[in-house]
Write a structure and sequence with these properties.
This protein has about 200 residues and is mostly helical. Helices cover about 55% and strands about 5% of the residues.
Length: about 200
């Protein structure tokens, strides 16, 4: 069934996922009082089916420059990037567990399609949750990446967010979000993809 997901449905799901990701990035900047968060609103409105115009990439550049400064380059081996990668790997593992426990294959993604990536679907699903890690890294950016920093990042799954009119642990929100996307994909747009509030 997963292998037969229709392209149109995948494109609609990816559009929603990216809108949620950019919205959550905007909400984090707003929460932290970082001036310029309004710039992301236009990117949310501009996301098309399948994010054909790559609003995600353009929004990410603006977002990371506002969050970590204009000199920040995603992917460099500095303290901030190492911490981000570590935190994202925690989210990725949680999504892998959730997807596999529901009988789906992590290799078959909605948008991510790298044949060498065993976790394409998990990479798709985790996108809106990345700002949770970004917030921890931002708040601890003066720390050297080590045991204390890792423990703070490990705790990301235990923080609380609002989803489905309830306050939940992130680990529960991941489960609800995953269910909502899988239902959307399997029922061809009959159900709604959920988002959380910071």
């Amino acid at each position: 069934m997963q292998a037969m997901w229709e392209k149109e449905t995948k494109d609609q799901a990816w559009q929603t996922i990216i809108k949620y990701k950019i919205y959550n990035q905007l909400q984090l900047l707003k929460k932290l009082g970082i001036v310029g968060y309004e710039k992301l609103e236009a990117y949310i409105d501009g996301v098309k089916d399948g994010d054909a115009t790559n609003r995600e990439g353009h929004a990410a550049k603006v977002y990371f420059n506002l969050l970590f400064g204009r000199d920040f380059i995603r992917g460099k081996g500095d303290n901030t990037n190492v911490a981000l990668d570590y935190g994202y790997s925690i989210l990725l593992s949680a999504f892998n567990r959730e997807i596999v426990s529901k009988g789906y294959i992590t290799q078959l993604g909605i948008n991510h399609k790298n044949e060498f990536n065993q976790y394409n679907l998990s990479c798709d699903f985790m996108e809106p949750f990345r700002p949770l890690v970004d917030e921890i890294v931002y708040e601890n950016r003066e720390l050297v990446f080590g045991k204390e920093f890792k423990l703070k990042l490990l705790n990301v799954l235990n923080r609380n967010v609002d989803i489905g009119d309830r306050n939940q642990f992130v680990s529960n929100a991941i489960s609800q979000f995953t269910n909502s996307v899988l239902n959307f994909m399997d029922k061809n747009s009959e159900s709604k993809i959920m988002n959380y509030e910071l």
